[in-house]
Fold this sequence. Notes:
- It is globular, with a radius of gyration of 20 Å.
- Strands 1-2-4-3-5-6-7-8 form an 8-stranded mixed beta sheet, with helices on both faces.
- The protein has helices spanning 41-44, 54-57, 59-62, 88-99, 119-140, 147-159, 175-182, 198-213, 241-245, 270-285, 291-298; strands spanning 8-9, 14-18, 25-30, 66-71, 112-117, 160-166, 218-224, 250-254.
- It is of the alpha/beta class and 322 residues long.
- The longest helix has 22 residues, at 119-140.
- It is built from 11 helices and 8 strands.
Amino acid sequence: MLCIIDTLQLSDSVYWLHHPEDAKEDILFFHGFTLETGDEPHLTTWKNKDGELWPQTWLPKHIPGSHVLSISYDSSVEKTDKEGRMDLYVMAERLLENLLLSDVDVGQSRPVVLVGRCVGGLVIKELCLRGCFKILSFRLNPDAMNEADADKVYKFLLNIRGIFYYGTPHKGFEQHVFEHLFKSLKGSLLHCVKTLVAETARLDQNFRSLCRAFHHWKLKAVGESQMTCLKGRESCLFLPEASARCDAHEHIALKADHFTLCKPETETSDNYLHLKHFAEKSIKQYRKFSVQKYFSLIWARKSSRTSGKIARLEKPEDWVAK
């Protein structure tokens, strides 16, 4: 089957897959590891066995108004002069610049669903945390960033309605799986998917705290229930349920292995339907809040006796539309 892929690059990291004039929801896809040099994981991750880029063709058909974007970043498992050198922190900072502090229209007036494949789920968590820290820095020091940029970041966080994980190793891969797949590789992101890594544990703990603040976020994870074949070894389960489930409100083990988990064969495949229903539900639950009220509550200036300093914010949930 020949599939023509039509995309438009909006920034270094952001690609349009579908952009309707009457966009009603932003759905962002974050890919997994780059296994081969020169690969385009922001596209290949989401192609099924027929070569169809299913987020581009299926979601707009079933969810009219879907604004679908694919996010690209350096997730190479090999470390070279140009690739595999960015850690999670630096990557999230760069994505924040390319996604929110640019002219890309995302997350400002529509509900947002973030979809992460494998390490892409960890990238989503770090991106949200970086955004939150930007806001906190702005609160403490209004000169830390432009007020309009701070507003864009906060709106994005408020408009997130769901995060969907495809086989994300929140607590790392099984040790024997990691050693077999990545033992001789040096990509900077690989450190995040080892078992019992302090950095990943801190990410998990901080993200849980963030989710308690933004309690309207819904998290769902799908994981594999079938063994994955490894060259030279017996088939094994890559990702134990405890690692795939982690902070998700709901976890489903699907009849797929680790590599086919995000590659639904048809529009009736479970690994597609779970995401479709999740995204549909996020639209129904979304209620727009008044931008004027938002400004008056969030960025209201104190009286003149406070020299125009930004008013102190309370808990983020205080400002979420009920």
